[in-house]
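Slide 14.
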Amino acid sequence: MNLALPIWRSPIRNLMTLLAACILAILHQYLFYGHIPGISVPIFVLFFYGFMLMFAGDRLVPYTKFNGLLSLVIVMLSFSYVLFDQFFFHFLNLLVLPILIAIHLTMWMGYQTRDWFQKGIIYDTLLHVIPRNFRHFPTAFSSVTSFISEKMAEGTRKTVLKIFIGVAISAPLLVLVITLLSSADGLFEAFLGSIPNWLNQITYSEGFFRLTWVFIFTLLFFGYVTGFVKPESQKEQIMNSFSKEDDSDDVEKGAISADRVPVQSQNECNSKNEEIEPKTLLLDPVISATVLVLINIVYIIFIVLQFSYLFGAWEGALPEGITYADYARKGFAELMLVALLNFTILMTVLLHTAESNPIVRRINHFMTYILVLNSLIILYSAYSRLHMYEEAYGFTHIRFLVHVFMLFLAVLMIIAGLWIHNKRIPLAKCYIILGLIAYVIVNYAGMDSYIAEKNIERYHLTGVLDEPFLTSLSADAVPILIEFSDEYPQMNDHLKGLYQEFAGQEKAWPSFNMAEYKAQQAIIKHLSSQPSVK
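Slide 15: predicted structure.
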């Protein structure tokens, strides 16, 4: 992308960047101060990207496919604040969304950044967020003072300097004089005593907090964008300039023989790299094989012992002395921890085992296949227990998220099994892309409406309904509850109360949420059709 904006070559680029950062900070406090995040989120994301492109667009690198995927993820997550009413994901995305934006901008316009699938990309992102950001806080003030000093005549600058000197000299004298006068006159002392109360009223006013908000975020936005434009400190720039001058001098003087430089310098560089490059700790393949064999033996015994009721629990083939409820509760958390431990062992063995002879390598591959298979069976056991628990005690947010996590972990296990067979599969890339896509899908899955449907299905089968929990769901579940109210009239009382709650809310437009708006309109339409509602 080649924008070639005039601001990039302007002598007052820092000042204009500071002014734009201040405007963006004013918009930020207007959209978010005292407001619940809603349509304000995608609006601010749009303006923030426009700000970054306008004042750091000359740092852009070629756009990659992963950058495009990350852009789509960011857009969809920001619009989830408009389309859904789900507190958990809205709260979680307050952390996830800025992190993804920071990573995206680092890859798009960062300084000497790495590829997106490398571990160092997090380090590069943190460099831009913290040190390179804070380093330019003084630049914000110096850009203003330098601009003002350039506009001042020499005599005016001297006058301002003399005024500052006079204020500095007067400060201790004022303290002494005020102390003497307050002790000599009680009325003057009472007047001074009332000043702190007056200052407190100013300090805790809304206007002060808004100004403080704008001031802090102005510095943050200015420092962040300037960190991309000038990522190197002044010391680093001087060192780099000296190194470049030394290189050019060596070339001009011909101090080094041209036909000896490549071999000698390459050998020196290789020896330095060997000394500097950290050695990766690798497991001995025999040790890995031993660990895998022992763990798989335990898992096979565990699976064989419970096989009779693991897949027959729904038909009542439970172990003696264990009730349906006990089976549903017992061991689920332990099985999940075992599955996570297996995944950790699998990744450690696959990525940190040294090369070996063909026989030991084949044993390791076979044992990792067995470990993947055992892990999938254990995950299925945990999944079935959780499903039985939900049938007995209902569906909740935590149980929904655990279901999703188990499915996600199973897919990771399967990909790892495929990678054992074909090492050309980019494991890190697959996991990162799959994680981003899975997170967006969960955000858009409609968790509350799904939970409402499953709890109503449970009511049809068992006649048991957790009404307090059902009525605590967000506006996403309102269409399901309206449909359910035809067979469960008590739900109309909740809908009436929800309508009064919506009517009593005075939300500003930055907090607009489509799910709440549709729920309100659906409730109005439903209640108006009821004969008891006038």
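Speaker note: The mean pLDDT is 79.
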